[in-house]
Each structure stands twice: as C-alpha cells, then as structure tokens.
C-alpha cells in the first residue's frame, strides 16, 4: 500500500510584508483581475514605504469569479509561489499582468519570479491551493466583505475609499490607539 505524502501548505494568513512586530497590520481582501485592486496595490506600496517598521501588510484572496474568470487560478498561482517564498514577487507580477492570467502565462510569471517547482502547472490544473483561496474567501464573507478591495486595519473594517490619504488617516488612528494602550 502506498502512503500518500502529506504536504503542508503555507496559507496567505501567514504571509506578511513589513516588520513582523509592527504595531499596525493592514490587511486587504483582493482580486488579481480587479483594476481597483491593482491601483490600490500602488497605494499600499507607498504606505509601507512611509511607515517603515510601524506597518505590516497581509493580502488575502477574494476572487470575484462571476466577473473575473482567471482570478481564482491567479490566486492559486500566488500560493504556489508562496510555497517557495516568492508570494510578494508573484503578487506584484500578477497585478502588472492582470489582463493576461491564463494558466500558461501564470507558469511563465512563476518562472520569471524564481519559482522552480516543476509541478507548478500541475498544481494549478489540479487546484492544489484552491481550498486555501476558498478559505480566504469564506473568511472575508464572514467578516462582511462583499467587494474588493476591502481593507482591515488591526482587524477593524476600513469603511472609507481606499486612497492614500484615507488609509493613512486610518493607520494614524490605529497608531494613536496603540499608544493609548501602551
């Protein structure tokens, strides 16, 4: 009898950019085919630059599959890259190429960012990371997310328009709250 090998998958909830000890966590539920998410990705990059060690960022998947036919596989591709520590490189690549997210393109992007797993395309075809994407989606729904991009600052739903200025205000408020408690 053959024993099936258990493979531990790194979920997106464990993938952050920024200082792990940062007092403020910005979390986004997003979709790689969304123009609004692509625009706000640049805003997040500026915020991370401005807040240095005070901010860390986590991206969760919320593919709007009814309007974006490639969003699910793109999300799975980012998880495939995450298994090799290349999530953020793939994340950036997917937004840059959000209009070309077919399976063959996804494999090429993975190669371009340094993913070496020979089974990358097989994993996409077989939806190896589909459950992790679904888990993000369900968690988002349970938190009240209905559209993307949706942001949370230290676990609290951000209700304003996600512009640089508005998110900055939200981060400043979260920093003040942390200082009050300290």
Which strand order spans the largest sheet, edge to edge or round the barrel?
1-3-2-4-5
Mean pLDDT: 92
Q: How much strand content do the residues show?
A: 5-15%
How would a crystallographer describe the biggest sheet? 5 strands, mixed
Structural class: alpha+beta
Number of helices: 7
- Portion in helices: 40-55%
Could you list the spans in which at least 5 consecutive residues all have pLDDT below 50?
none
Shape: globular
Looking at this structure, what is the CATH superfamily? Answer: Glutaredoxin
* β-strand number: 5
Mind explaining what this structure looks like?
The protein is built from seven helices and five strands. With 182 residues, it is of the alpha+beta class. The chain has a single domain (12-181), classed as Glutaredoxin (3-Layer(aba) Sandwich). Strands 1-3-2-4-5 form a five-stranded mixed β-sheet.
Task: Describe this protein with a few key phrases.
single chain; 182 residues; Glutaredoxin; 13% strand; globular
How do you describe this structure in short?
The protein has 7 helices and 5 strands; from the N terminus they run ββαβαααααββα. It is α+β, with helices and mostly antiparallel strands and 182 residues long. Strands 1-3-2-4-5 form a 5-stranded mixed sheet.
């Amino acid at each position: 009898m053959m024993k099936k090998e258990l493979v531990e998958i790194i979920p997106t909830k464990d993938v952050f950019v920024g200082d792990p000890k940062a007092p403020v966590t910005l979390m986004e539920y997003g979709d790689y085919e969304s123009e609004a998410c692509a625009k706000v990705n640049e805003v997040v990059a500026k915020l991370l630059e401005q807040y240095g060690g005070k901010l860390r960022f986590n991206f969760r998947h919320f593919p709007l599959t009814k309007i974006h036919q490639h969003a699910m596989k793109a999300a799975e591709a980012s998880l495939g890259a995450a298994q090799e520590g290349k999530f953020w490189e793939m994340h950036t690549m997917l937004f840059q190429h959000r209009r070309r997210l077919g399976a063959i393109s996804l494999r090429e992007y993975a190669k371009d960012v340094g993913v070496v797993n020979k089974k990358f395309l097989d994993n996409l075809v077989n939806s190896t990371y589909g459950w992790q994407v679904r888990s993000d989606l369900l968690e988002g729904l349970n938190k009240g997310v209905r559209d993307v991009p949706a942001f949370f600052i230290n676990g609290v739903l951000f209700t304003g328009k996600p512009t640089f200025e508005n998110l900055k205000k939200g981060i400043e408020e979260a920093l003040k709250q942390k200082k009050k408690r300290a």
